[in-house]
Every structure is written in C-alpha cells, then in structure tokens.
Specification:
- This protein is α+β, with helices and mostly antiparallel strands and 321 residues long.
- It folds into two domains: 169 residues, no CATH class; 118 residues, Sandwich (Immunoglobulin-like).
- 39% of the residues lie in helices and 24% in strands.
- It has nine helices and 13 strands.
- Strands 3, 8, 9, 10, 12 and 13 form a six-stranded antiparallel β-sheet that branches. Strands 4, 5, 6, 7 and 11 form a five-stranded antiparallel β-sheet that branches.
- Strand 1 and strand 2 form a beta hairpin.
- Helix 2 crosses helix 3 and helix 3 crosses helix 4.
- The longest helix is centred in the N-terminal third of the chain and has 30 residues.
- The protein starts with a strand and ends in a 20-residue tail after the last strand.
- The N terminus and C terminus are likely disordered.
Amino acid sequence: MHAGGVRVKPNRMHTDAGQRASFAGPLCHPLPLAAVLALVVNDHVLKGSGLLPAAVTGKLSDVAGLFFFPVLCASLVRALRGLAGRCDGDGMVRALGSIAITGSVFAALKLSPSFNAVAGRLWGHNTLDPTDLLALPSLGLAWLWLRHGRPVPTGDGLKVAAVVATGLASVATSRLHAQRVYPQWTADSAARQSLACATGEAWVGKSGKEGMGVPLELRTGEPRCAVEVTGAELQLPSRVVAAAALPGRMELRPGDIERVWLAFPFDGDAAWNAGERRATLRLAFIAGNEPRSWDIELSNAIEGGEQIRVGERDRDRGGDR
C-alpha cells in the first residue's frame, strides 16, 4: 500500500491480534449459543420429566448438537492456526471439514456397534439408533451459519468462555443416561451367520418399553447375491411378535454392505414384569435362491443385576429407551 509515494506495510501484529480475537466469532451469537442451551436443558431437565414427548426429547439434543458442534470445531481450528502463527486460511475448507467430521462421527456413533462401544466408555452411553440420522439436516444449517452468519462483537474473555462452555456441553453425559437402570434385550453372543452366498450380522440396536429394534447387515464375496428376508419373528415366552415390516429383495455385490432395520413392537415393561428373561429371534431368508433360517438367542437383563419392577411411573421417562 502506498501513501503519498511512501510504501506502508500492513501492521502484521495488529492483523494477527485481530484474527486471534475473532477466532470464536461464529460461535458468539445468540443462535448457536441457544442451540447449546437447548442441548443442556434437554439432557438434564426435559428428558424423563414428562414435559415433552419422548419422541421430541430423544431427537432435540441431536438436532442442536449437529448445528453448533461444527461451529465449535471451526472456531478451534481457527484458534490453533492463529496460535501457530499461520494465516487464517480458507473459511470454506474449514467449514466443510468441520461439517464432514461431525457428520461422520455422528453416523458411526449411531450405526457402528464397535465405535459406539468405544465412545460409550469415553463419554457415557449413547443409543445405537439409525433413526437419529434424521437430525443430519442440521449440518446444512451449520454450513449456512458458518458461511453467512454475522457474529456479535464480543470481548476476548467472553469468546473463550463461550468456547469452554460449548465444549463442556458437547462431552457432558446427560443425567438421565448416567442413571438409567432399565432392562435391555441383548444377543447372547456375536450374531453372525453364513447365508448361502451372503454373510449376515445382527444385534439389538434399540431396546425399551416400546419394543426392540434389530439392525441387520448383509454382505457377499460372490459376484452377485440376491437376498430376501422372508420372515422375522421374536419368540417371547408368552407370545410371538412379528417384525413391523420386512425389507424388499436386495441385490448384493462384493464390497457392498446392505443394512436394514427390523422393528419389533411390544410392551417391554410388561415383558420384564412378567419375568420374561429369554427370547429367540427367528429370521428366514432366501439367499441365492436357497432358503435359509437363523435363530439368535436373546436375554433380558438390567446392567448390574438390579431386580426392580418397571411400572407406570417409568412410562413417562423420555428419550433413549
């Protein structure tokens, strides 16, 4: 830059200080901070209170978290670059990276039993529930905010406080999850089965007072394999519960992983109170034009072995059961 024929260099110290002071700008606005507050209130107050339906409290934290967490990630990356003495970088790349990481981790948490188990040991129980992926459109709102949101002018101290509070809200385990003592149906062992030209894997993905959900994964090493689930029943001591719906015919190829969700609606509390501790999940297939059957033994227990009666009072507790 020239001024009156004299070349004037930009004040790099002033520029770097400005970048460091604005690293959390996208986070310091009532909109993302309201999402943080919504998650905290939902996890620690609303879940289990009966004030809102369980269907709402079970998804509200996911929607809020998927909105503000990419904003937090982008702010932290910008802060680290500033501390390393690097330039601010491409905001679009930072936003896309934050959203991609958030979405990938969330999807793995809801779909992968092994990843969910590791995350559970670090941060507390989180339900393996594919229906929670319905909250993923919140990432689109995060993208719009990171690209077009206008931060509110805020002092450096408040920016740091906002980042710390948001980080704590992201990793805190809800009070309801920490105290859950509900009975859960689980498979007695790793449920894998050879199905003619395919291999299947199944596990209990969700268990609660409204029934049970079973994710089923199918894959093949053959050039081509057609698989159809022709039957799915949960045989309890007192009755037989059929799956609410069966998936259609699936055409598998090497490298493909086909995942379907089998829902078994029944009164889980009544089953526990009636002393039903064992059940058999019976699946029937046609794989490569050959009929196949698969029985999976299940058990119903409470972690720690508590023998309690689940009553009407528990029916108002919301969320992840």
